[in-house]
From TrEMBL:
GO terms for biological process: base-excision repair; mismatch repair. The keyword Iron applies. The keyword Transcription does not apply. InterPro entries: A/G_AdeGlyc_MutY, DNA_glycosylase, Endonuclease-III-like_CS2, Endonuclease3_FeS-loop_motif, Endouclease-III_FeS-bd_BS, HhH-GPD_domain, HhH_base_excis_C, HhH_motif. It holds the Pfam family HhH-GPD. This is Adenine DNA glycosylase. Keywords: 4Fe-4S, DNA damage, DNA repair, Glycosidase, Hydrolase, Iron, Iron-sulfur, Magnesium, Metal-binding. It comes from the Bacteria. Mg(2+) binds at residues 268, 288.
Length: 363
């Protein structure tokens, strides 16, 4: 039973959320079906991406890979291409790897036991709860970012959520409706996404207003307590768009086990202290590909933020002078025409470089 709340109160709190969800819950494509594969794909896409961005990706993905088997049999490059633009590509690699594992070990059938689901790559406790409750109506709780915020306010948590995870999990476990866990979890997510929002929570529209401790104390906008923020590192990267005499461009494929693994990119690397961008690009290209280049005009600077750092990609047009290109710091290299670049999966920041190259060509 929920600490501090009698059983009847818990029943009432569950009912209030379920009634609210019935009336105000969002109509999302993955809620129209119970196929665990589709729900799994949606849960993974939603891990770091907003609903409105996910919907078209989700629909295209299921057209391209309608079943676990289709996904398992696809080439990783094709999978990464379908993911292009969603970011956090480890999610796509893990989906692919897990689909192959399911074909080999489960005959392509998504398991319905928590331990088995948790053993799949890319699936943690909250994702497992999301899948099992939505696909099989199992009473497995969730604790994603939205739910952490709602529950922290509901009990007026006096520390940042990361300092009270066991307590928040216990609360989520205690609250989940055992008869209707699917709708309860979906309702909890919707409450966080649409009413108990990060800024300006709409408490007057909230089914839990009467029982919410933060609201009753008038501190809902001050909660959850913020995590201690540390400055985000900023890396400057010199990037080379290397042309040969045929007008082809040299691209490389990143090592599979590194960040953005398996994606293609324009080669380059991090600026050392006291190094100019031109010096950096020349050095990196010699170290990573074993070739000599001439660094010419600046094309574009692309700023991009990842979870734990920011990068500025300072991109220069370069001319290939000599040496046999070798994949020293990458998996593979290719000379391609500008029009062929679209056939390869690139990280988001590199797509801006491709757009800039097309603009230059059209001028
Ligand atoms: S009353 Fe306000 S702060 Fe409390 S759960 Fe509802 S929306 Fe969030």
């Amino acid at each position: 039973m929920l600490a501090g709340l009698p059983g009847l109160e818990v029943v009432k709190i569950r009912q209030l959320l379920l009634l609210w969800y019935k009336e105000k819950g969002r109509d999302l494509p993955w809620r129209h079906q119970k196929d665990p594969y589709c729900i799994w794909v949606s849960e993974i896409m939603l891990q770091q991406t907003q609903v409105k961005t996910v919907i078209p990706f989700y629909q295209r993905w299921l057209q391209r890979f309608p079943t676990i088997k289709d996904l398992a049999l696809a080439d990783l490059q094709e999978v990464l291409k379908a993911w292009e633009g969603l970011g956090y590509y480890a999610r796509a690699r893990n989906l692919h790897k897990a689909a192959q594992y399911l074909i080999q070990n489960y005959n392509g059938i998504f398991p319905d036991r928590l331990e088995e689901v948790l053993s799949l790559p890319g699936i943690g406790r909250t994702t497992a709860g999301g899948i099992l409750s939505a696909a099989f109506n199992q009473p497995i709780s969730i604790l994603d970012g939205n739910v952490k915020r709602v529950l922290s306010r509901f009990i007026a948590l006096s520390v940042p959520p990361s300092k009270a995870l066991p307590q928040l999990w216990e609360l989520s476990d205690s609250l989940i409706d055992l008869e209707n866990p699917r709708d309860f979890n979906q309702g909890l997510m919707d409450l966080g996404a649409t009413v108990c929002t990060r800024k300006n929570p709409k408490c007057d529209q909230c089914p839990w207003q009467g029982d919410c401790q933060a609201y009753n104390k008038g501190i809902q906008s001050q909660l959850p307590m913020s995590e201690k923020s540390t400055p985000i590192p900023h890396k400057k990267i010199g990037v080379a768009v290397i042309y040969n005499d045929q007008g082809q461009i040299l691209i490389d494929r990143r090592p599979t086990d590194k960040m953005l693994g398996g994606l293609w990119e324009f080669p380059g690397g991090k600026l050392e202290p006291d190094e100019t961008v031109e010096e950096c690009i020349k050095r990196e290209i010699l170290e990573e590909l074993g070739i000599i280049i001439e660094v010419n005009e600046h094309i574009i600077t692309v700023d991009h933020a990842y979870t734990h750092f920011r990068v500025s990609l300072i991109v220069h047009a370069c001319r290939y002078l000599g040496g046999e290109p070798k994949p020293i710091g990458c998996e593979e290299i290719r000379w391609v025409n500008l029009d062929q670049l679209e056939e390869f999966p690139f990280p988001k920041a590199n797509i801006k470089i491709i757009e800039a190259l097309k603009l230059i060509k059209d001028c």
